[in-house]
């Protein structure tokens, strides 16, 4: 088997409109398409970052909570590369986003930090 690339990452939100606003207005993603699936009472939005398809944003009625701390078993987090972690952190904080402190990756020496989407999903900023 030959994998070509990661196609998408799926995120289930408890409040679709709130999470859509976060990914579009705070993180700068672009909404490519959006559909309401009546049979599932579910919204699905395709979001892109810098013209590349990246995130499928879903809503479902009463989704169960999932452990989301970065050290929980399973998919750990979604990381975004930025030119300056410190500047991006300051911008996120100015928009009321919960952010951890700046860190240095002990393996690469690069700046990094975790922040959280409206449902507490751990996201990471990583220095280019």
Automatic annotation (TrEMBL):
It holds the Pfam family Glyoxalase. InterPro entries: Fosfomycin_Res_Enzymes, Glyas_Bleomycin-R_OHBP_Dase, Glyas_Fos-R_dOase_dom, VOC_core, YwkD-like_dom. Keywords: Metal-binding. PROSITE patterns: VOC. The keyword ATP-binding does not apply. Residues 5-128 form the VOC domain. It comes from the Bacteria. PANTHER family: FOSFOMYCIN RESISTANCE PROTEIN FOSX, LYASE, PUTATIVE-RELATED-RELATED. This is VOC family protein. It comes from Herbiconiux daphne.
